[in-house]
């Protein structure tokens, strides 16, 4: 099953831009997903299990690298907000 997740990160850090950019850069390095960054969130689309695994590891990586943050996420199971190019 496909899944689209919309995620926003709010670091508990006065200099919030580096953690947000770092998290987005990390997401973009993950294989098997389509990623689109918008002004207020990032969309992640792919296989349900892959999306969930990447978000689990990504949030842990982010907290370990930059400290505490709030992650606000919406999940749309069975929906591809970012269909592959040409599909």
Strand neighbour order, sheet with most strands: 2-3-1-4
Alpha-carbon Rg, integer: 13 Å
User: What class, by secondary structure content?
Assistant: alpha+beta
Biggest beta sheet attributes: 4 strands, antiparallel
| Average pLDDT score | 93
Helicity level: 25-40%
Helix tally equals 2
Number of domains: 1
Low-pLDDT runs: none
Strand segment count: 4
N-to-C terminal Cα separation, in Å?
Answer: 17 Å
Apparent shape: elongated
Write the element-wise H/E pattern from the N-terminal end onward.
EHEEHE
Strand content: 25-35%
What is the chains' assembly state? single chain
Protein name: Thiamin/hydroxymethyl pyrimidine-binding YkoF putative domain-containing protein
Organism: Gilvimarinus algae
InterPro entries: MTH1187/YkoF-like
Question: Could you walk me through the main structural features you see in this protein, from its secondary elements to its overall organization?
Answer:
The protein is α+β, with helices and mostly antiparallel strands. The protein has one domain. 36% of the residues lie in helices and 34% in strands. It has 2 helices and 4 strands, in the order E-H-E-E-H-E. A 4-stranded antiparallel beta sheet has the order 2-3-1-4, with helices on one face. Strand 2 and strand 3 form a beta hairpin. The protein is elongated. The two termini are 17 Å apart. This is Thiamin/hydroxymethyl pyrimidine-binding YkoF putative domain-containing protein. InterPro entries: MTH1187/YkoF-like.
């Amino acid at each position: 099953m496909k899944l689209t997740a919309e995620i926003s990160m709010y670091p508990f850090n006065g200099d919030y831009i580096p953690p947000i950019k770092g998290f987005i850069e990390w997401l973009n390095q993950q294989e098997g997903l389509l990623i689109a960054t918008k002004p207020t969130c990032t969309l992640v689309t792919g296989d349900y299990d892959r999306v969930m695994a990447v978000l689990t590891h990504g949030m842990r990586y982010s907290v370990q690298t930059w400290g505490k943050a709030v992650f606000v996420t919406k999940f749309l199971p069975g929906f591809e907000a970012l269909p592959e190019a040409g599909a």
